[in-house]
Amino acid sequence: MGRKCVWTPAQSKQFLTFHADHRMRAAWALAIVVGARRGEIAGLEWSRIDLDRGVLYLHWQRTTTSTGVVEKTPKGKSKRTVAIGPALVAELRAHRNRQSAEKEHCRSRGSVRSAAIRSPRSRRQCCTAASP
Questions:
Q1: Which residues, listed in sequence order, are joined to residue 71 by a DSSP beta bridge?
Q2: ∠ CA 57-101-28, rounded to 5°
Q3: Contacts with 123 (C-beta within 8 Å, 6 or more apart), sequence order
Q4: Neighbour count for residue 54 (Cβ, 10 Å)
Q5: What tens digit of pLDDT does each residue of 22-44 get?
Q6: How far apart are CA 89 and CA 54, in angstroms?
Q7: Strands (DSSP E) found in the chain
């Protein structure tokens, strides 16, 4: 297994600033700030986030198997409840508002969208981006 690179706070801020308008920004913020794995992010739904209390329930993950995409509990003891600060709460609220606007736009055009935080169908699509 290769050596893992850990970003400094300045590099993390630079990345999120560079991707300020990207629709995956909230997912990347979750990965950077709370260390959420891409399968956990892909499995996260609004019903598993309490923005008023600042709590995130990472109790499910989405993964790909030979039979397709499945939702399941995380391996081992990685099922956890995480407190999130005001900046991440604001990020998630903004994401939810953008998502609601997208959903309304799609509804007006006859399309159907998921109410989940996740957009990607698989975890591989979730956290892939070019660095700034």
A1: 62
A2: 45
A3: 38, 39, 41, 42, 61, 62, 63, 64
A4: 15
A5: 889 999 999 999 999 888 998 88
A6: 6
A7: 49-50, 55-58, 61-65, 68-72, 80-83
CA–CA separation, 101 and 52 (whole Å):
21
- Provide the sign of the torsion angle of the four alpha carbons 45, 97, 109, 28, taken in this order: negative
d(CA 91, CA 7): 20
Are the C-beta atoms of residues 132 and 15 closer than 8 Å to each other? yes
Residue 91 has pLDDT above 70, yes or no: yes
Q: Using DSSP, state whether 46 is helix, strand or coil.
A: helix
Which residue type occupies 9? P
